[in-house]
Amino acid sequence: MAELVRAVFEHGSFVPETPFDLPEGARVLLTVHATGLVVPPLVSAPEERARILRETVERMKLNPLPADAPRFSRDQMHERG
Length: 81
Known about the structure:
- The structure is a single chain.
- The chain is 26% helix and 10% strand.
- The chain is built from two helices and two strands.
- It has a two-stranded antiparallel ribbon.
- The longest helix is centred in the middle third of the chain and has 17 residues, at 46-62.
- It is flat.
- The protein starts with 6 loop residues before the first strand and ends with a helix.
């Protein structure tokens, strides 16, 4: 039986996002396809990496969060949709 199940990796374990009907202790084979991760640039020259980091920091400084921005709870920050 093969099914596609979305899960979140929490505290060293994969936790399904929806209930899944398996008996306790059942063994499964997982193939992990991470989604939404940022992939660093494939640059090996130290000068180029430093330039990319400087530009990234400068862009972040140009777009600061407003002081009155809403504060999200942990649950809101980790909400899956």
